[in-house]
Amino acid sequence: MKKQELKGGYLISPRRKQALIALGMGAFLCFASPFSIHGEILSKDVQSLQQQTVRIKGTVVDRNGEPIVGATILVDGNSSNGTVTDIDGNFALTVSPQATLSVSYIGYTTVKVKADSKKELKIVLEEDSKALEEVVVVGYGTVRKADLAGSVSVMDSKTFRDQPVTQVSQTLQGRVSGVQVDHSGAPGGQVKIRVRGSASISRSNDPLYVVDGIVRENGLTGINPDDIQSMQVLKDASSTAIYGSRGSNGVILITTKTGHANQRVISFDASIGIADVYKKYDVLTPYEYATAYREIKDANAFSDAEMTGYKNGTMGINWQDEIFRTGYTQNYKVAISNGNDKTQYYLSANHVNQSGIINNSSDKRYQLRANLTSDVTSWLHLTADFNLSHNVTRGSDFGASKGNVIWVALNYSPTMEMMDQKGNYNKDPYNHIAFNPKGVLDLQSGESMSNIANAMIDLRFKLLPGLTFTTTNGVDYYDGKSYHFSTKRVFLTNPNGAGNHDRYRMMLQTSNNLTYIGNWDKHSLTATAVWEPRRPNTEISTLPAKTSP
């Protein structure tokens, strides 16, 4: 008897097997041509799908070959598909083969090019001739952008008009090359601005702030971003030289808005935003912490009942839940402007109410501004400006030597008890780094208030053709108070305490400059003589207090 094969539950003899193989080969030969044709159709469909999009790469430069950072590349007719150039001016974008790219950047003419995946594009942008005629504010005067020689960055209010910014410093962040802006992150917190880095390790590296010709010792605090018409950042020695040593760290010039003749504008804007922690830190749970502590340090550190409580979540502390919350921001702005051919006015008000994502942190600001411009006579132009701001900031911290509240909370044990039987906030028995972070946020309250007033009156006299004399007189007033409270419920062995810090400052300034501007054929001359006295007055007082419970 011949051997048979078992396949798929059936017995197949060798003869039947040969017959089935022959039948299969015949069927394959009969249908080989149709299958081959169908295979070509499928491959063409796949190839067609692949050719619907191509990857375009390129570089955007100016006429000198310097890369343009932040240039916008959009598919013409499809604004949802686009990108921006990186720090080297490079970009990459997936588009259809017949797409047209629109390349634009502020101050340059827009260029449109056809997409070409076979080679890397090099797109050259030319400066806009209209932009070259724009007037740029520089030290004690103005100049056409085409005649500008120093390193000056110009930012118009259109750049941040639709952005949800509450502080002027936010408008500079990421928008001006060579300018670094660091925020503390807290509502109303400290802001550090550096123009081309830090030049000193022992003295201030803050730039000089000049608003409408008046130096502001308070920096950008108390200014409504919507009141700004333009900002200029003077960076190099040639552009800051007229300010002397005061401009060694750079100069930030701000020109505020004014009314326009025969243009009545009433605007109101209200915005509400919500802030939350995008992603919390991944730390050990109470059960994981207790298990690791047992294995590494003390096997008898926690009872079985405690371990069960940590495991099922009835015991233990999630410190991130204790210090974080959902924050919100309310921003209300109203502005009115009008005028005739001789006199124009501008009025604005702003209220910002912001609560931070850290418990017990908030900032409130109330701001008013009034501006009046008038051609009093054919030879006298008057500008008067008044700005008033009231700020209230609340928050708590451990001080620079102990780290911030987030760092302390992340290092606190999740297995400890929050309070003792007397209602005092416990310190971490396993990690003696700082006082209880929740106790500090709940009971160690701190509040700072500031009143800022700035007033300016500017008189410009036309003496002779091309010769003008301008006198700008202003006052920069600041009155700040901060309060600090501490309690034994948090600091345990320390007595109850309080602190009061007052800072008063008034700066009187008068700036007088005589300017001559002459033009001969293709030549021009601008000469300026400046005399600027200032009278500062600063008073500081600190009053600490300690009491028994």
From TrEMBL:
PROSITE patterns: TONB_DEPENDENT_REC_3. The keyword Transport applies. Coiled coil: none annotated. Residues 145-251 form the TonB-dependent receptor plug domain. Pfam families: CarbopepD_reg_2, Plug. The keyword Transmembrane applies. Its main location: membrane. It is found in: Cell outer membrane. This is TonB-dependent receptor. GO terms for cellular component: cell outer membrane. Keywords: Cell outer membrane, Membrane, Receptor, Transmembrane, Transmembrane beta strand, Transport. Belongs to the TonB-dependent receptor family. InterPro entries: CarboxyPept-like_regulatory, Plug_dom, Plug_dom_sf, TonB-dep_OMP_SusC/RagA, TonB-dep_OMP_SusC/RagA_CS, TonB-dep_rcpt-like. It comes from the Bacteria. It is a multi-pass membrane protein.
